Amino acid sequence: MMLGNIVFIASLFHNPLHTRCIEIICNLTRFPSNNARLASNSKVVETLLACGKSKLPEDRLWAVRSIQNLCSDAGSKVTLATGAILSMLSTSAMRKDYEEQYAAVGALMNLSTEPGSIVPLTNTKTVVATLVHLAHSPNTPAQVRKIACDSLATIGLWLQTLASAGTVPEEIPFSPLPTHSATGWLRWES
């Protein structure tokens, strides 16, 4: 009942208590035992997603921090790895505010540690491009760059693990992955 009222007020952008309610939700996510229940509540997730797209930096910061905490729950990572949330996190990661960047990249890192989240992470247009940009931009703060690199390495490791678990046709000689060999189409040879 109380959570429902907090979420309701948090979704009312014109209400003066709106930002404080997002902050309360964020503080609730600081307790790991709350995260599975909060992440499974669609109203909480939808409200945080809407607040993460707010024009007010403070609203975005509390929403992204909340999602970062929710993404730390192992059982909730696959559920939270949706295109809408991933796009919002990518947008937040590209903003100039350090705290918002840090929370957004932290959330992406949390999601990258779950193999079930790898397909949505790599299929969402902006996620990998955002992480690569942050990893290589000289304007990226060192901590954000480190987490972006760690996220990319973790995604790469999961992709390699998934690729090596596939079956190789019998006529192809075995070689450990990655092979580091380049191939091309030999169109002039018959």
Note the gap between the termini.
73 Å
Output mean pLDDT: 91
Judged by helices, strands and strand pairing, the structural class is: mainly alpha
Tally of separate helices: 11
Sheet with the most strands?
A: none
Helix amount, in percent? 55-70%
Shape: elongated
Contiguous low-pLDDT stretches (5 residues minimum) are none
Counting DSSP E segments of at least 2 residues, the number of strands comes to 0
Series of secondary-structure elements, N-terminal to C-terminal: HHHHHHHHHHH
Rounded radius of gyration (Å)? 20 Å
β-sheet strand percentage? under 5%
In short:
By secondary structure, the protein is mostly helical. The chain contains 11 helices and no strands.
